Amino acid sequence: MRSKVVFRRLLHNKQARYGFIALVLLVGLAYVGPFFGAYDWTDKDFMSFLSPPDGDHWWGTTSIGQDMYAVTLRGMQKSIVIGLLVALISTGLAAVVGAFAGYFGGWVDRVLMWGVDLLLVLPSFLVIAIISPRLRDGSWLWFVALLAAFSWMITSRVVRSMTLSLREREYVLAAVYMGIPRWKIIFRHIVPNLSSLLIIDATLNVSGAIIGEAALSFFGFGIQPPDVSLGTLIAYGSGNATGYPWLFVFPAGLLVALVLSVNLIGDGLRDALDPGSNL
């Protein structure tokens, strides 16, 4: 019943509708668009270097003859996947750590929150910049793990504070008296009642991860060649933005559109899940 109410409220939110439509179109462009192009992202046209957009190369070509349309869509695919994976990992970690700290209290709470405070004071950009070069020969999933490792701490504190209240509810106390293991109580009764917060956090974490990946890749600490992402393409095109604007405009424009659409959906979800909001 509640899900129907939330869905109806979400549909009545114009910004959320526009964001959802834009996101569907962008994801469709990223994963279906390459099938309509004449070139693969690894292909090189040695007769066309730094060519402007035309009938053959819709978004122009790079300095080594790669089709910008195919390369940019490949980069958007990688950015979308990274954003989703980082959001799932970081939100899941925040839910588990915050719920366990709030429910068990005592030394468990102190140890977990000490770890959270330690990660909060570490300069995440600097740490990732130091570690990522040592993982250049490894999988890009290591980069996802690094981004997720510094994206969950604030949410975990919010989850902890909400768990302190939830653990005193009647249904939780009843489960304790029935002898249900505490870890099952956390996953059956505590975490599901935090779903509104976690859904909003995961949605907004997608856009945050996409921006974080783009920023780190822009400075050479993220996705490494020969693979591409929107961040690496923006870094490549920024030096030629005036002379060859298609190298910069298309990846930068898609990055802005992608982040904006996710943020609009996140804002719409926040309003739809808030009983006190008026849509």
UniProtKB/TrEMBL annotation:
Q: What SUPFAM superfamilies would the database entry show? A: MetI-like
How is this protein situated with respect to the membrane? Multi-pass membrane protein
UniProt subcellular location: Cell inner membrane; Cell membrane
Question: Any idea which UniProt keywords this protein has?
Answer: Cell inner membrane, Cell membrane, Membrane, Peptide transport, Protein transport, Transmembrane, Transmembrane helix, Transport
Query: Boundaries of each ABC transmembrane type-1 domain copy?
Result: 80-266
CDD domains reported in the protein's UniProt record: TM_PBP2 (cd06261)
Keyword hit for Chloroplast:
no
- GO process annotations (BP): peptide transport; protein transport; transmembrane transport
Family assignment from sequence similarity: Belongs to the binding-protein-dependent transport system permease family. OppBC subfamily.
Write down what this protein is called: Oligopeptide transport system permease protein OppC
